[in-house]
Each structure stands twice: as C-alpha cells, then as structure tokens.
Amino acid sequence: MRKMQQNDAQYYGIMAALLAGVLVWGVGLFGFFQHADAFLHDVLVRFSFGKEKSVKLLTLVELNPQWAERSPVQWLDMVDRILELQPKQVVLTVLPPQVAPLMATRTAPFKGKVVLGRALQAHPTIPEQQILEPWPSTISTVIEWAVMAPPPRFWGVARSQQRTLVLGDAVLPVLEAYAAGWPPGADSEPIYGVHFGSGVSTLPRISGEHLLSGGLIPELVTGRTILVGYGWDSRFATMTVPTRNGYEDITLLQFQGFALNTLLTGQSVHPLQNGVRLAVVLFVLLLFTLMSQPLELRTFIPFFLVFQTGWFMMAWAVLFGFGWAVPITEPIAAMIVLFFVFVRRKISAGHLALQRLLLKASGEIRERVAPTSFLETDTPWPYVIHMVDQVFAMTRILFLERVVKDHRVREIIALRCSLEDIQEMRRDYERTPYTTAILEQGPLVVQKYLKDGQDSERQYLVPLVTNGQVLGFWAFGMDVNQMDSEENFLKAIKSYAKEISGLLHLRLVREERKALEQASWNRLIRFEDVASAQRNLEYSVQLLESRLNRLDAIFTSMETAAILYDPFGRMVQINARMSEWTQLAGMAPFQMAAADMIIALSSVAGIKVRGLLRSVVLDNRSFSLPARLPGVQERDFLLLVRPIQRAETKSPSDLERDVLPFQLEGVLLELQDISGMRQLHTLKEKLAGQLNYQLRNDMESILAACSLMGHKNIPAARRDRVATIIHEKVNAIIQAVGSAQNLLEQHMPLGFAGEYPVQGLEILKNVLSSFMALPIIHGRGIQIAAHLPELASLVLAAPGELQDLFMVLLTHLAQDAGHHTTITVRAREEPRTGENSGVIHFDFSNEGYGVPAERFQRLMEASSSELDETFQGPQRAARLARSWNGLLTGTSEVGMGTRFTLTLRIYP
Amino acid sequence: MTMQDLLAGKKVLLVEDDSALQELLLISFELEEMDVLGASDGEEAIALLQKGHPDLIVMDLMMPKMDGFLFLRWLRREIRVDLPVLVLSAVRDTQLTDELLALGRVRLLTKPVNIPDLLTAMRQLLVV
C-alpha cells in the first residue's frame, strides 16, 4: 500500500515537473526571463574566477574629438606610423569626409589589412529607419568596410553584440565580427556575449597625440589589431557594461575593443539553442523532482534552497568553465512553482495520513472502550431497554432516532408500545414537542404523546444528545404513584440519557461507515471526510476520558491505600487513602522513591528492600511486609508490593515497542490496615489462654474429685459434696466453652466470608433440584410448592454459603415435616424505595410438627446456650445471613409447622 | 518408714484460690493423714506462715492479690530457702519453669494432675 502511494506520488511529481518545465520554457521564448537572466549574468560576471589575462591581440588608438577637423596629412601620418610597425590589421571606426579620398588611395595597397567602420544614420525622410552613412562610391569599393552596429541593451546595459545587421534586404557584417574574420564559422551564433573582464583597465590604449609624437612602440602594434576611434569625451554617449568590478561606463570604441577581443580570443559566451534550453530545464526539474519526492516536508524546504543554490553555482561554473550561458531563471522559476505544488501535495499527504491515523486511533480506542462486538448488531438495545425497564419500572419505553433528510423519527426499539402509538402528525422532529425537549436539554413532560395512556401515567420525552448533536429521543411513560422523588428520578433519567446517547452515536457511526463502504463511488475515489474522522476521534477520546476518569475515581476511592510507581521508582499516582495516611505520618510521598517509601513504612533495611524490589522488577514477584506508619503506633498495617505488568497486545505498534521496552508498567504499593485483624488475633490468643487456664483448673478439680470418689475411706457426706463439685465443674466447663464460642461469634461474625452479587434465585432453583432428590423427600412423600418469579435482582451473599444455607433450611423443614405434606418456597422482591436499598425475601414453610414458639425463638438466637443439634444448622444460617447484612427470621408452632424467612439485600 | 507413710503427720500449707479445688485437695491430704492448712492467696499464706512453718507447701501459681511467684520469692527471702514447694500451674511456660526452678527445691506440675501423681511428687520433694 505504502509502495503504491510512493509510486503514485512519483508519477504525479514527474508529470508536474514536465508540465512546469515546458510551461516555463514556452514563456521564456517570448523573452519573459531575458531581463532576469541578464541581471543574473552580471552577478555571475562579478564573481567570475581565474586571473584576468591582459589583452594581447588588440590595441586601441583613442582620438580626441579635434581629430575630426584634422588634416588628411595627419590622419595618413597616423595610419602610416601604425602600418610601419606591421600590425595584423588596422580598423578605423571613424573617418572624417575630408580624409576619406586620400585614405582610400593610401590604404588601397593594404587591402585586407585596413578595415573601415561604416556608421548608421537615420533615414532623412523616415526617422525610425536607419541607413548606412553615405560614402562616395569610390571609397566603399576600394576599402574593405563593415557596418558599426549599436549593441543591444537590456535595462541600459550592453552585454552582447550581433555578428550581422539586416538593413533592408541586405545582411551586412558587423565591424567587430568582420575584423575578427569573415565569414565566421558555421556554428557561430548570430549574437554573442561580450567578455568585459576586469574592465577598461585591461585594454591597451594609446592616444592619437601620443602616437604622432612617436610614442608608439612595436609591442603594442606588431601582430595586433589596431582599433582606431574616438576616445572618452563628454560629448559622446557612453554605454554601461558588466565587468568583474561591477558596472562600468565605457565608450563605443572600448565596447568595440572588448567585442573584437572576445571574438579574437574565443572568449565569447555561447547562448543555448531553444531546444537545448528546454532539455536542460527539463533535466534540472526532473532531477529536482526525483530527489525531493522521498523527502519529508521539514527536509524538503532546506533541500529546495540548497538545490536552487546548487543550480546557480553550476550555471556559474559552466559559464566560466565552458563559456555556455545555461538558463538560470527558467529552472529556478519552474522549481519555485514545483516547490509550492509539492509542498501542497506533501501537506495534503500529511493530512491524509493524519486523517487515517485519526480514524485508526478512534477505531482502536472505541474497540477498547466500547467493544465493537457489543455494538456490531442491534443486540445491545434489548439489553438497554430491559435494563431501563428494570431500573425505572416504566409503563412504556420507546427509543427513537432521527432520520436524516426526512424530518421524522424512527423507532429503534420499544417496550409495551411502538411508533404507532405516536400520532403521525407528531413524528416530525423539527416541531414540538421535540424542539421544546431539545431546548429543555432534559426530560420534558409531554401530554398525550403516546396514545391510550392510563390516567396515572405521566409521559416524558428526553432528547438524546452527543457532542451537541441531537441523535434521537427517548419517550417513556411513568406511573406517578411509583415515583418517590421526581427530582432524583429526573436526575437518574438524565444520566441514563447521556449513556444511551453514546450508544446511539456509535450506532450511527457504524451505519454511516457501512453506507460509505457500500457506496461504489466512495470506493473509487476513497472519499473520507476529515470532519467526520475528527468527530469520531473526539467522541472516542471522550469515551476514553470517561473510562479513565472512572478508573481514576476507582483507584482514588479504593479502601486500600495504594500508590503506583513507574519502573524507575518514581511516583505516578497516589489514591486518597494513601495520601491521607502518609499525611498523617508526616511523609511526603511525592518526594520519595518506591524504595524510600517501603523503607519508611516497613522499617526494613535499605539493602534488603533493594533486593526485594529487584525481585519485583526482574522476577515479577510480589511480597508483603508488616508495616507501621511512622508516628502512628496504635495501628498495624500490611504492605503489599507487587509488579503491574503490561497486558500483551496482539500486534504491538512500533511506538509501543520503542517507547515501552519493559513488560513492567510499574510497581504498586498497597497498605492494608490490619489493626482489626490484629485485635481479633489478640482476642483469640487471650481467649484461648483463658479457656486453657480455666479448663485445666476445672479438670484438676474433676480429677481430684474422681480420685476421692474412688477412695474407700471417704465419708458419705464428703462423697456427696465431692459429687456436687464434679457437677459444678462440668457445668462451669460447658459454660466457659459456650461463652468463648459466643465471644468469637460476636467479634468474628463470619465477616471474612465475604459478600458478592449473586443470582440468589438461580441458586435457590438449583438447590431445590438437589433437595427434591433427597431420600427423605421421597420417603415421606413430601411435595415442594415453589412460587418463584422468572427473574430477580442479584443479591449480596457468598455463593457457596448461600447454597448451603438454602439446603440447611430446607433439610430442617423436611425433618420437621409430616408425611405427605407440602414444603412451600416463595421469593418476592421488594424494590428499592428512596434511599432504602431493595431486598429479596425467600420464604420457606412446612406443614410439620413444629416446636413451641418461645423455645423456637430461643434456639434461633445465636447466643443461646441451649444445645439442640437440630438447630445448629438454622443458627449457623442466621449468623451467615447477618454477616451479609441480611436477616434470617423464623416462627414455629406446635402442630402447625415452621416457617423461615431469609431477607437479602439487592445489588447494588 | 515407707514412702507411703512419708506424708503422714506432715504439716502442709495448701495455697489455692479455687475454693472447690482447695476443698478437694484438703480432703485428699487429710485422707493421707497430713496436717493441712489452707490459704486462698499469697497474702493469706504469709499470715499463716507467721504462726508456724510447714514441712511442705503446695501452691497454685495464678492467684489474686499476691500471685504464686511473688509469694515464692518472699518465702525464699523471708522464711526458708530450702522449704520444699510444689507448684501447680495451669500455664505451660518454659521461661516460668526455669525461673521457678532457679528458686531452689521447687517442683512444678502442670494441671490437670492426678492425685496419686501429686502425692508422689510431694513425697519425692520431701525426700530430696
């Protein structure tokens, strides 16, 4: 999948690069980038490398403007002096009219060695048209000449010169190109870049006056091209050129000198042909694209800047290394375009990845907090409606959901009613009473919303809202006679509505997802709504937060004091009880590591504690130590130290593997107050000691008495006395044992049996099945009449003991029952009313012999010292019932039978 | 004189807070022709000892007012260090036994004990 996405991205990038390259190149054909390129060229020139060589093939002879008035003799003298020193050629860029005829005659023998520059001038009648400076025909046919074309300029800067000039129909060679050798090579460009080097200072120059005064030396002339023309004068226009030193203003003669020198030395800069430019642009862009595709956004931006700089440097190196003017602006412009395209693309990809992550995370969270299996089908709703019915005992219940785009409500599930009970007119959720209920944000009393209601029925409508979005409604009827406190009732309804809204939200999300999955167009374009993903995640996070808050509340409110440390012994969480106790002891748990805390509480040596902790961390072992809170001597504690291990996940993520290398999540310290247990233990010890002492003393008396009774010489009166003592001592022993038993029951009323929510009714049914199979039932022909409801709430008891208790009572009744009589068993639930928790009464009665009522009550009392084996079972049953905060009562009457009633509390 | 006759005519002080047991032991000792005086606690026994010294003391250890241990210490300090004492105790305690035996010529029997065994122990104590 990931590979496919990469391929898609590369294909997209290449296409974008090609498109951008062609586009930029096309725009460049219209000269769009010329100015920018020219400017960059000047920058590159300024930073050109290598030592600048002095000009050796050319010398300029600069004349002042007065030379225009000079006599032909002086002109010829100047030319003769030059020719004497055997130059390669002499190029005259200026020739006054009075000098022209004589000069033609004089230089005729030097054909090919003297070239004249012929200026252009405006057409006398058409000013915008240029024509050649008029010359006598005798001159133009005798002397070689070439036209002096003004160099093209951009932004006032002259950087290049043309080789030919088109004038009318004629293509004329330009002076510099002609002087450099005509015709030029076939591969010569019509326009060439002029190399200005370090500027005018590199050009060898001599003034006309200096020449005439004999200052001309052979080194400046022999073998060189001598360019003669007007030098610097304020009356002549200058032109700006780029040099190593920056822009310089030079004369036309100097420009011609640089242009001619460029051609003579082969230093001209070659501009690329359009086709080649396109190839270069595309190559650069493709390289940029391929290199940038795998990069993340944060590295892409610096890469872009580096690549731009790199290309600029490359252009600089190619310009001065090979004389090629590669395109700079076009690739840079195209890269800027691509930069924005790619950044947008990468951000979009990031958003898409984030969106997928959100969906995945929200799915995982929801699976963890609200398992899909529970919500996959409509199965939760029967549970929900049944639970609501059990809790609130409503007359009618109806859950409705909104039908999008239909303005109508739809039935999810109903009990003792249906959607048909709502009038057709009142099913539009954009009208009352729905809108009123939404405004109410809670239960709204509605009149005759559901048809055929009883007079005592009060009807409510509750909006089901999640994240501020109304998802449905909960309509129900309630018998006003069943409502004890409307305030509490409405409060509970609000809480339930919130939970039910959550379930409804999950149902809608599931349906939306199913619809999207089924839509073929969605599969094609993979449309996923970010907002929807965000909503899902928000809700999942809310669920998670709610679960965490519950767990946090459970941890905080735990009866056992607990404190959690991470694997490095740093405190992570402390619950309220531990916080209270450590505060009582003046300890600062936030500043104490796990080992410090254990040492402080248990007073065990540090080295031993460290060893124990090592076994917790490495061997996953738990240990317990007796503990005391420093400064709190009257209480005894047990300190439990155990490792908390991370639950194995089916496929741990990379993050889990990287961030949570340990299997150990933390170390939990639990401090249990065992003061009560310690007191009971002390009591037991003392009681046993006392009983031992008493019994030994009394046994001593009995032994002594028995010995005396066997003595032959003991008088009869004393024998009687001894017998009395024996009887007294036996009674005293019985009394002592009975008292000890009572004391134990009083202080340890089976409190350790524990109580749990158990299905009392189911246990009773199972016991009845076993009971009916007993021989005594068949033997006496006893019938069992069980009047039991189908369902009953859970009761608080210990499951094993409750089973024994039922059997004990039934057995007792069976033993007391007459032949062919009936034992009746009933169960009736007394629901919760106000603050009183509900109870279930289990009634057992027989038609038996019975015992006198007074004696029955005495025997049923646990503290009774009267011994009757048949009542040991019911006595124990009564104690068990009390240990669960329940009650076992009974009545009996001679000839009528016996009846037991076991009352147990409902959970919760 | 045989061992059976050893107790006859001996003056014995019985210190026992349990009146029934005291009564039974007094009868038993009288049947053996011993001259027995009975006391309910240590203080009462001290008062009797002021009037004359017995040949043997049979005493309980756990008693009100002055327990047997304190009485024994007083006895060794104030009356006679070698007066034979038979201690009857319902408590098994090794440390207590050691402390009692350290007081010299003391024998400890743990209740319940048969009368014949008790008489045998008394005879042995008188002989030693």
Which short descriptors sum up this protein?
heterodimer; A: 908 residues; alpha+beta; six-stranded parallel β-sheet; five-stranded antiparallel β-sheet; 28 helices; 35 strands; elongated; B: 128 residues; alpha/beta; 43% helix
Describe this structure in words.
- The complex is a heterodimer of chains A (908) and B (128).
- Chain A has 908 residues and is an alpha+beta fold.
- In chain A, 48% of the residues lie in helices and 21% in strands.
- Chain A contains 28 helices and 35 strands.
- In chain A, the strands form eleven sheets. Chain A has a six-stranded parallel β-sheet with strand order 6-3-2-14-1-13, sandwiched between helices.
- In chain A, strand 10 and strand 11 (170-173) form a beta hairpin.
- In chain A, helix 22 (675-709) packs antiparallel against helix 23 (716-747).
- Chain A is elongated, with a radius of gyration of 56 Å.
- The relative contact order of chain A is 0.05.
- Chain B is an alpha/beta fold.
- Chain B contains five helices and five strands; from the N terminus they run βαβαβαβαβα.
- Chain B has a five-stranded parallel β-sheet, sandwiched between helices.
- In chain B, helix 3 (68-78) links the parallel strand 3 (56-60) and strand 4 (85-89).
- The longest helix of chain B is centred in the first third of the chain and has 13 residues, at 19-31.
- The two termini of chain B are 15 Å apart.
